[in-house]
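User: Could you walk me through two proteins back to back? I'd like the raw sequence and the structure tokens for each, with a short line separating them so I can tell where one ends and the next begins.

Assistant: Of course. Protein one, sequence then structure:
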Amino acid sequence: MKRALIIAALLAAPAAAEETPPPSLMERGAQLFLEGLLKEMEPALDEFEGLAEQIGPAFRDFAQAMGPALGDLMERIDDWTLYQAPEVLPNGDIIIRRKPSAPPLEEPIEI
């Protein structure tokens, strides 16, 4: 019985080795490259995580307060490519102008 187990183990070892061949030089090089990139990015990712923890509550409050208004704005504007970047006026108002090249509106937007 012991002899059968030893023979089965010896026969299984080469079969297991054949299932997972060693990585090619290209695969190993890509793996080393990605590992190095991850090491280089780790401090920046840690810093970003800390920043997200600081900004998270303020962003959540902003989304709760402004969410309905932004949703309404999204429904009113059909194609964002027809509008210029938002502009903050000296009095604090924010306006979003249509580009001069944009076609005229079919129906005026009611405020």
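----
Protein two, same layout:
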Amino acid sequence: MPTEKHLPIFVYGTLKRGEVRERMWPRGAVLIEEATARGRLFDLGSYPALADGDDVIRGELWHVREEDLPVTLDSLDAIECYGNEEVDLYVRRIIECRTLGGDVRRAYTYLFANPDELDGVLVVMPDDDGFCRWSGRGRQS
């Protein structure tokens, strides 16, 4: 059982495998699991935003070595504009996720810092399988 200090990281957008920021992870994962989390997913064009909600969001749990977690979180914090700007774009939180195999995991993720600013933004609706997924693959920058 991971400690609060050593948790996987749930990603749902540009940091997933095959997306534009996949190569920005500072350390490789020892395991990547397909997983879901509850929330509301918004499409901001070149990246998504996750807010509180009840939809089932499909993403990935990235497990890094315990000794790599601090540098990984520092790097992801910078990418997500958390804790290094006057105003945060995202905030890092611990949430509950579920692997596709049904195991429950606690994980770090990044939620949109100002959900009131999401009024009128396109909501990513569930697919036929009931999952909300964001993908920037194939988009023009």
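DSSP finds one helix and six strands in the chain.

Let me know if you want the two compared in more detail.
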